Each structure stands twice: as structure tokens, then as C-alpha cells.
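User: I'm designing a mutation panel for Adenosylcobinamide kinase and want to avoid disrupting the core. Could you give me a predicted structure to guide residue selection? Please restate the sequence first so the numbering is unambiguous.

Assistant: Good idea. Sequence first, for numbering, then the predicted C-alpha cells:
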Amino acid sequence: MDIELRGVAAAQGWPAPGCRCASCGRLRAAGVRHEPFTAALDGVALEDLPRTDVPGGYEVLAPGGGRALVAAGPGARPEPSAGVEYEAVLLDMAGSPDHLGHLRRVGAVTPGTRVVAVHLDHRLSSPSELERRTAFWNRPEHGPFRTLLLGGSRSGKSAEAELRLAACPDVLYIATGPVRDDDPEWAGRVAAHRLRRPAWWRTAETTDLAGALAAATGPVLVDGIGTWLAAAMSETDAWQEPSRVEPLVDGLVAAWRGTAARVVAVSDEVGLSLVPTTASGRAFRDVLGRANQRLAAESEEAALVVAGRVMELR
């Protein structure tokens, strides 16, 4: 199927007329404008092709016989017809990248399906940000491939980790933090994370992170290394004698190096804040800082997330 994109933006175009947001401002300053979405398949305009409406969009049949699934607009999540494998899907990847994971999960999108992002607008900071994300979403599902994401509190590191795996059909989310039923604030954080994740992702609450990495083969998200280390230090009574936790850290690094999974792990960057005032706080900072270095050295990718923006670490 030959796809000619004559416009890729949402209905008002990108930048949107009169919009003062930073995304539209950048494009306007650069003299760039993306026209509203329209396309041709095998040389025939989309609106002239045989169409079947589906929830969230429509299917079209190209002159060459291939089928395409098209999102109706920003936020739309077109549902596939039963048993159909599409030659192309034209989706709102700016707002609903996890819908691609759903389509892959049900078999409507295969490795041979062409995935095209349409209805683009200022939900993206820039076209280059879409390119950055598309590289993650087109990556093979299986590993080994390791990504370490570092950041401070509320930096956006967990959201970035989820974004990188959003288009996968099946993800194992490993939560290493303790269950705190008596802490409403902590329960709220956990609930917010769950709502942000696709419903079909599996969740494992465990501190046996080395064992989980050894057993995994597909996409895995670990959130996070800092909470795992806190549990490990309590388990080994290492708060006053940090050397006691080193065998567990060694085991984690070995499992990270040897995993067959495509794994994205979140960890706290602890080297940029004030020196902790307690011996136990300094011990945790030092052990986690060294563990981050060792994990980064065994990672294909590492990045620092600051104020929701990502800096790749080379």
C-alpha cells in the first residue's frame, strides 16, 4: 500500500491559529506549519475510498486491496474488526500511543503493519519529540535491551518510563515499593500510577527484583530501584553497616546484565540534593549512587529526567 500524507495535523492545523502555547510558538517562529490530516492510499484520496465506520474511526479499502484503520480525530481510538490484520493504521499517537499496544495485543497490528501518526497538534512539544517517541514505539518487543531513567522527586521519570513502553502489547510492571494501606498519600500515588498505565499491563509487587529480571523475556518496567534498595537495606540491617547490602546489589547488577528482557527501570538521582543529615541517609545515598553507576554501565540507554524533559546520557 502506498500512503501519501498530504497533511498530518489536527483539524485546525499545527500551529493552531491564535494559540499562544510553547509548541505552537516554536513552529510559528520556525516558519513551519502542518496542515490538517488528509491522505491518499494507492493514489486515491482517503475520502474517495470504500469506508466502513468502526467505533473511534473507520476502515478503508485501498485500490490495491489492503485495509487501513484510521482514527477519527484527536483522542479517538478506532476499534478493529474481528480477525482483520491491517496493512496500515493511521492513529493519534500524540494522545493515545497505548492504543497501538492494544491493536498489537489483539493481532490487528503485526510486524508488517505500517504505523502512521496523524492528528498531530500541540499535545506534542515539537515534531522532533514525536520522532523521539516513535523510535521507542517501533523498537522490538523482546530484549535484551536495558534502559535506566534517573530523576529527582516528581521529575516525570515514571511517566517517561511508561511512555517508552506504551505501544507494547504486554508489559510486566514490577512495583518494588512496600504496600502502605495505612498511608493515604502513598495509596494516592499508587492509584495515580495505576490509572496512567494501560489496563492490560500485568503488575508484580516484589522485592525479588533479580529473580524477576532473570525470569522475564518481554517488556518490563521497574519502578523503582530506590524503593528496592530501601527494602534491601532493611532486610539486611544495612542502615548502619552499608556493606551488608552489597551482595544483594551485586546480584541485581548481575541480573540486569544477564536479563533477556526489554527492561526500563526508574531510579532516583541522589547526587544533586543536600547532604543528608543522618548517617543512614548518607549510607542510602552512597549505595544508591554507586548502584546507579553500575546499572548505567550495563545499559544500552540511560537518561536523566528533569522537569519532565529528558536528557539522554551518552
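For picking mutation sites, this is relevant: The longest strand covers residues 145-151. The chain has a mean pLDDT of 94.
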